[in-house]
Write a structure and sequence with these properties.
This protein has 9 helices and 4 strands, in the order βααβαβαααβααα. By secondary structure, the chain is of the alpha+beta class. The chain has a domain of 113 residues: Gyrase A, domain 2 (2-Layer Sandwich). Strands 1-2-4-3 form a 4-stranded antiparallel sheet. α1 crosses α2. The longest helix has 24 residues. It is elongated, with a radius of gyration of 21 Å. The structure holds flavin-adenine dinucleotide. The site of flavin-adenine dinucleotide has 9 residues, from α7.
Length: 208
Amino acid sequence: MERESVLKVALISYTPEPELVVATAMRQSRYKGGVINLTLKSEDVKHLIELALKLGHLSVFEYISFTFAIEGISRACSHQFVRHRLFAFTQQSQRYVKERNFPFIIPETVKKNSEAEKVFIKAMEYIAGAYDKLSALVPIEDARFVLPNATETKIVATANARELMHFFKLRCDEHAQWEIRRMAKAMFEEVKKVAPNIFSESNLKLFV
Ligand SMILES: Cc1cc2nc3c(=O)[nH]c(=O)nc-3n(C[C@H](O)[C@H](O)[C@H](O)COP(=O)(O)OP(=O)(O)OC[C@H]3O[C@@H](n4cnc5c(N)ncnc54)[C@H](O)[C@@H]3O)c2cc1C
């Protein structure tokens, strides 16, 4: 289906040496001297991060931030995402971007049921037609009122590691709705590459 969007998650920026920053802060809390010229070995970094997680000394995870560019999610998903208040968000605007033949997300349950898929696609075609007609008659900020939850959106989101840990705890969980869970897991895979001592599967149970 040409107008179906595919999830894309990219980590576009993050604090340099994120784990070293966390570990250095953690070391300062237990170190008589200063940390300005301190050299931490990789095993110290791992140990200090484990200690911070074990003790619930979670403020040390607030020093490091991660910025994601995300595409191919529905407005239903982004609505859940933006409830996480400690993220910073910039979402593609439906006031300024005209949704010509708007792309959309199709749930797997719909794709697997041919009758449901027909109903779904027919609804999308009808809405696309209505939106096009309306946008010739009224401003697009008003035409967008007919667009569905399935409409694809793009969003840039930044959070510190503490908020990310909380987000992953809630949204990688099996009780989370499938689309935000899929997105959260893709974000988790990205941060795992750059901060593997913090974002590991075994640490997920320690996140709060
Ligand atoms: C499975 C699931 C089902 C859900 N179902 C619904 C639903 O049916 N309806 C609905 O409306 N929402 C629902 N939600 C959304 C949920 O209620 C939260 O709004 C969302 O998960 C954001 O979580 P949060 O508020 O903990 O986190 P964030 O906004 O990410 O904040 C992180 C943490 O900061 C602290 N914090 C942030 N702001 C404040 C504040 N003002 N005061 C005190 N502490 C604060 C809290 O400790 C909070 O946990 C659901 C969420 C999940 C995971």
